[in-house]
């Protein structure tokens, strides 16, 4: 990775920093899952992504990072990692290195999205997940094994999330089933703005009638 940085003259540095920023604390993936929940066509993907992200956080951030407690590459004074990390822009992180939380979140959400989404566009999620994993090693904040572990955990979490989401849809009854299958933010907006439009039209009708009566007199 350092050789790539040198040969490209740091050309990929801004891109990798931007990709990593989206995965910081998983906010980008959480936001995407929340947006998917608002639309009935993508609600199942949103549910699966949310569950997968939750599983990934539990396994990676709460369990393995604390159990393994592996130091980041750039903290090792006897290696060249710190020198390479500085060259890559000193992307600051403070938690344990193994496994990669960014990679876990990316694969948890994007693999779930790929499985349930329309394959015409859902494949882009997998591309972004691999770019996330690449960026973490490129910035010298993870060892390759950190990222590989995150990819495996994230993929497993995604499969579990998809399985649970399908069970939720299958078992849902009553008002909850209606919420899953019918509620849509688009329909709500149409209902709200449609009422305003109807009210405006009804207000104009009497005025038009009065003007006709006046002109008739």
What does this structure look like?
- By secondary structure, the protein is mainly alpha-helical.
- It has 2 domains: 2-176, Up-down Bundle (Vanadium-containing Chloroperoxidase, domain 1); 184-216.
- It is built from 10 helices and no strands.
- The protein has helices spanning 2-8, 13-22, 27-37, 43-68, 81-87, 101-116, 119-138, 144-171, 174-182, 185-216.
- The longest helix has 32 residues, at 185-216.
- The mean pLDDT is 85.
Descriptive labels:
single chain, 0% strand, 217 residues, Vanadium-containing Chloroperoxidase, domain 1
Short description:
The protein is mainly alpha-helical and 217 residues long. The chain has helices spanning 2-8, 13-22, 27-37, 43-68, 81-87, 101-116, 119-138, 144-171, 174-182, 185-216.
Average pLDDT? 85
* Structure class: mainly alpha
What percentage of the residues does DSSP assign to strands (E)? under 5%
Q: Secondary-structure element sequence? A: HHHHHHHHHH
Gyration radius, rounded: 25 Å
State the major sheet: none
Q: What is the helical fraction, as a range of percent?
A: over 70%
Number of strands: 0
Classify the fold: give the CATH topology of the largest domain: Vanadium-containing Chloroperoxidase, domain 1
**Assigned CATH architecture of the largest domain:** Up-down Bundle
From the N-terminal CA to the C-terminal CA, the straight-line distance is: 87 Å
Give the topology.
Blueprint: H1 2-8, H2 13-22, H3 27-37, H4 43-68, H5 81-87, H6 101-116, H7 119-138, H8 144-171, H9 174-182, H10 185-216
Helix pairs in contact: 2-7, 3-4, 4-6, 4-8, 6-7, 6-8, 7-8
């Amino acid at each position: 990775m350092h050789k790539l940085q040198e040969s490209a003259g740091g050309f990929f540095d801004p891109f990798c920093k931007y990709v990593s920023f989206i995965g910081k604390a998983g906010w980008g993936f959480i936001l995407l899952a929340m947006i998917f929940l608002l639309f009935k066509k993508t609600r199942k993907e949103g549910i699966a992504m949310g569950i997968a992200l939750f599983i990934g956080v539990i396994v990676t951030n709460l369990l393995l990072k604390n159990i393994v407690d592996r130091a980041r590459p750039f903290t090792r004074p006897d290696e060249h990692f710190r020198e390479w990390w500085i060259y890559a822009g000193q992307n600051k992180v403070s938690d344990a290195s193994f496994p990669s939380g960014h990679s876990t979140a990316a694969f948890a959400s994007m693999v779930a999205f790929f499985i349930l989404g329309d394959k015409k566009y859902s494949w882009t999620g997998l591309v972004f997940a691999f770019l996330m994993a690449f960026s973490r090693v490129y910035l010298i904040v993870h060892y390759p094994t950190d990222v590989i572990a995150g990819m495996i955990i994230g993929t497993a979490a995604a499969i579990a999330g998809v399985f649970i989401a399908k069970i939720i849809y299958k078992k849902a009854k009553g008002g909850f089933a209606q919420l899953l299958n019918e509620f849509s933010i688009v329909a709500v907006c149409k209902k709200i703005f449609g009422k305003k439009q109807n009210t405006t039209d009804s207000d104009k009708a009497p005025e038009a009638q009065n003007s006709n009566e006046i002109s008739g007199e």
